[in-house]
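Structure ticket #2291
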Amino acid sequence: MTELLRAHGESVLSARTRIAPEDFRVDEIDAFEASGAGEHLLLTIEKRGLTTAEAVRRIAAWAGVPESAIGHAGLKDRHAVTRQRLSVWLPGREDPDPSTLGSEALRVIEAHRHSRKLPRGALAGNRFRLVLREIVGDRAAVEERLGAIAARGVPNYFGEQRFGRFGDNVAQALAMFAGRRVKREERSMLLSAARSELFNRVLAQRVRDGNWNAALEGDVFMLAGSHSVFGPEPLDDRIRERVATFDIDPTGPMWGRGALRTSEAVLALETEALVGDDAQALRDGLERAAMKQERRALRLRATNLQWQWLHDDALEFAFELPPGSYATSVLAELGDITDAMR
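Resolution: structure written out below.
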């Protein structure tokens, strides 16, 4: 895996997180209201110490439906307290009693009828509330770094979760591309890891060059809050101002078939960052798998960032992130943080 360089300077603290699941809280931000009628029961659940897949199995058994009848917008960590939506397809059936699903690990917060199955990605973002404990570091330096994160954002790296429990998903992807047979669900996971690794390499190079959050000649941009991309186009003050105000972000490649869309300096940078035998093998494998060239924002903005000191060595802070981004990217900019649950 690529070394993920910090954009805001050296570490300002060491700390531990997730000493208890309550130290890592994640709430989905809903993208829509329930319609109030239809064949699907839209549940908002709170889970503790469960993966989303485990929650799906419990809900399917509770409702007496196959797991394929359950929809969910995203995956949430096991070692956390999380709130998320799931839908249950119940055509012509009464709603099961939510109180019979309740336990310390899983409970229903809301239940409403809805017209459609909940698709993947159908959320506006995630709200995080994290606690760092056993902090060693200067309080003023920590708060200055938090201010820099709020003002400038952080590199939008794919987090370590993307690369497997033992960090070997990229090696496994290379083995798959070399001919090793894998199950369908594993194939999807390894393809994602391969694309993520190549993206992280490009982003790490731009962090190294100090231009991860700036517009360069030949950049392709993504409109904030969407997946709409445009460019390259001539670099001018209007483009620079839109980047400075977080209206648009420069992007990096999510590898697949087709030519890179960037040009000039950025095309040269992306090409150079992805040289080497293993990078070529990852690129070739993704193209043979019929993945398409796509783009991802290089910069991640943590909005509504707030913090408070619980003790001299304990800090609670909260922020919101768009879908598909990682809280670990924010944590990494603070310093060396040990995840007690890993």
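Closing remark: The chain has a mean pLDDT of 95.
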